[in-house]
Write a structure and sequence with these properties.
By secondary structure, this protein is α+β, with helices and mostly antiparallel strands. It contains four helices and five strands. The chain is globular. It binds adenosine monophosphate (AMP) and zinc ion (ZN). The site of adenosine monophosphate has 11 residues, from loops.
């Protein structure tokens, strides 16, 4: 077994070695309730096969993953009657990742729920174009 998998809490959840409140699962993915919700009903969706984050995921599993995430998100929206939801993944510690097994967050959102969004920064003259050039495939 990959040493990263041995002590991975989400691998243990996937194998049902530790309990979680499962919402949906199939042979590849599982959706369960986050124990520390940003809003109540916050869900996590994991691939059952260990990967550190999206950088280590490949097709065809990766494409199927998004469809599974959408299904859980729509089910959550209908069941909770929330006004919307955020879907996101933290990749690497700089982005807030603390559990190193791929997981999408699905966060129910309500009008005026008081969650503030990220700050808007400003580009200097010509800087936006420079960033686009840096990021584009060479
Ligand atoms: P991240 O910062 O993206 O790595 O998020 C990890 C998430 O996992 C956090 O929102 C935690 O609340 C959640 N979490 C940690 N342990 C468990 C657990 N045993 N069951 C459910 N959610 C968990
Ligand atoms: Zn894992």
């Amino acid at each position: 077994m990959n040493p990263n998998e041995e002590n991975c809490i989400f691998c243990k959840i996937a194998k049902k070695e530790i309990p979680s409140e499962i919402i949906n699962e199939d042979e590849l993915f599982m959706t369960f309730v986050d124990i520390k919700p940003i809003n109540k009903g916050h869900l996590l969706v994991i691939p059952k096969k260990h990967s550190r984050n999206i950088s280590e995921m490949i097709d065809p599993e990766l494409s199927k993953y998004l469809a599974f995430v959408k299904e859980s998100a729509e089910q959550m929206k209908t069941s909770l009657g929330c006004d919307g939801y955020n879907i996101g993944m933290n990749n690497e510690p700089a982005a807030g990742q603390i559990i190193f097994h791929s997981h999408f967050h699905i966060i129910p959102r309500y009008k005026d729920d008081g969650l503030t969004s990220w700050p808007d920064k400003e580009y200097e003259e010509g800087e936006l174009k420079k960033y686009a050039e840096k990021i584009r495939k060479k």
